[in-house]
Amino acid sequence: MIRFFEFFRRFAPGDQLQREFQTQSLGSGFIISQDGYIMSNAHVVANADEVIVRLTDKREFKAKVVGIDQRSDIALLKISASGLPIVRIGDSSKLEVGEWVVAIGSPFGFTNSVSQGIVSAKERSLPGGDVVPFIQTDVPINPGNSGGPLFNLNGEVVGINSQIYSRSGGYMGIVLCDSD
User: For 41, which of 23, 69, 119, 147 could close a Cys bridge (C-beta 3.0–4.6 Å)?
Assistant: First the structure.
């Protein structure tokens, strides 16, 4: 009985032990240059003390945040690597409403997930209007997909998965992607 009491005395709320909490965020991104420049969302890396990038081959790199644009929710990162595979950048102005698109990301930490849908609207803006116009799509997107690429069917990046606009926070709403 004394051991049980001693345990609670040492670890119960209100004890003198200080506990540190560490928070982590999860997001996606894509490599735009062979020498390690990566695009993601500003909200994925904003206020981070450290950004770790894990490639699909499981290599990990500490990334430097080169720049953030809050208005467009874009972040540019840099890792020390070379010879990296890169994506092709397309022209989002050529997207048509009804065109098929594909999103790649890590929803809930499940890496290399692919979902597809259509472009529902272009030049969409949210209430308040301080953010740049978005591509609206019905591609299923969940937390962890932010910063991942939105591809057209030619395999070109035409947007960055950015915001889920729904009542539940899940993909049952509209998905807004930054255009280039």
Answer: 147
| From 72, 73, 113, 178, active-site residue | 73
Distance, in Å, from the CA atom of 26 to the CA atom of 29, rounded to the nearest integer, reads 10
- Catalytic annotation on 73? yes
User: What pTM value is reported for the model?
Assistant: 0.78
Candidates 25, 43, 120, 180; catalytic one: 43
Count of all residues that appear for the chain in the document: 180
Tell me what percent of the chain is helix, strand and coil, each rounded to the nearest 5.
Answer: 10, 40, 50
- Tell me the residue type at 69: D
φ and ψ at residue 92, rounded to 5 degrees: -65, -20
For 78-91, the pLDDT digits (tens) are 999 999 999 999 99
Beta strands at 37-40 and 88-89: parallel, antiparallel or unpaired = unpaired
pLDDT in tens, 2-33: 455 455 555 555 544 444 545 566 889 999 99
